[in-house]
Amino acid sequence: MSNQNNQILKNTNAQILDEFNASIMFDKELYSQDIRGSIAHSQMLCEQGILTKEEQEAIEKGLLQVKEEIESGDFKFTLATEDIHMAVESRLTEIIGEPGKKLHTARSRNDQVATDFRLYVQEKSLSIKAQLKELIETFVNVASKHTETLIPGMTHLQHAQPLNFGYHMLAYANMFKRDFERFESSYERNNYSPLGSAALAGTPHNINRKSTSDKLGFYEPTNHAMDTVSDRDFALEILFNISTSMMHISRISEELITWSSYEFQFVRMSDEYATTSSIMPQKKNPDVPELLRGKTGRVYGNLISLLTVMKGLPLAYNKDTQEDKEGVFDSVKTIEISLSILNEVIKTMIVNKDKMQAACKVGHLSATDLADFLVQNQNMPFRTAYYITKDVVSHANSLNKDISELTIDEIKEANEDLKNVSEDIVMYLDLRNSMNARTSLGGTSTKQTQKQIENFKKWLKDN
Fold this sequence. Notes:
Fumarase C, Chain B, domain 1, Ribonucleotide Reductase Protein R1, domain 1, 8 strands, elongated, 20 helices
């Protein structure tokens, strides 16, 4: 091979290695956090007499100019600067000269990236939490309109007992409230500043970590430098929290897909969130809920990816953790748009009360009420009442009726032990009465559902 070809190969390999090693093309997402951290660091260095007031002012002014250039699109990101930290520092030095070279005193890229990334995760935890609150409020508002709208409650996707649709909506409000609390808990647990940990062992410079911690809105500095620069628990937590929220989104999406089918027709989605088939104009496809359901797998992958990256890493910082950011950025964008879209889907869906109520007359939803009646009013053991109820269900099937439609005479015909049963049983088997009979805490009765709505409204006001 000629020397010329060898040189071309070397240049090609060098370019590939630069691309492989650099993170600038994705960690530029952290420019705002990086500049915030650098301003706080420069202010602390000035307070400690490590920078002069003039140097600090020049650094801060220069950093704000860099931020403006990035946000206006004038800043040129190149592989030569490798990452966002060097990109900002290099441009700062171009703008202000020698003082720019002093900014990195008493810190390392290890604690710098840990600070930037943690600031990003903390900010996103708060904004996602706010979106979850909006979604919860939407579910509560829909629930408020449907505390008397009957819908078949299901187990194993089989008709089980009558519920009100408001109660069903509150199940999702509760799911997303737990998500809200997870993001809140993670924020509290991780709101500690890595800045000043340096490479892994702290710094000999006379710094004040509490000062930078306060300036950046953290509660306190972290208390162990080596753990801090290698810790990515905060990133794993937001990925887990997002994955759990997306799992909940996938569950309501699945129900929306089912409910909007011809077989159910419980709800109709706005045309904004459904599309027609390319060859079948009569079809209206629930594309948006399907995409929401599908994107859950995407964020699961990001969580598993980072767990795998972190598995077995020795202390302290390792280049492996450069792989921590893209999955988090992707999952954050996915949950943000998913929550926004789901909120609008729920707000704009049309509920078909008649179809829901008609479906309640399939599957003998009030059968359990017959057994409960026999236990409460006939002093009958539950297991005996259970088998008698099976006979009544069989008799109703033979008459092509739902159990809720049987007359007192038809009920008595079903089993010898029912010949003296009270006529009150007919009232017990009524679907609306069945729903409203469940008055225990957390039950589906209209009264209990309204109590839960009031509790949620108080919670929304307090949070």
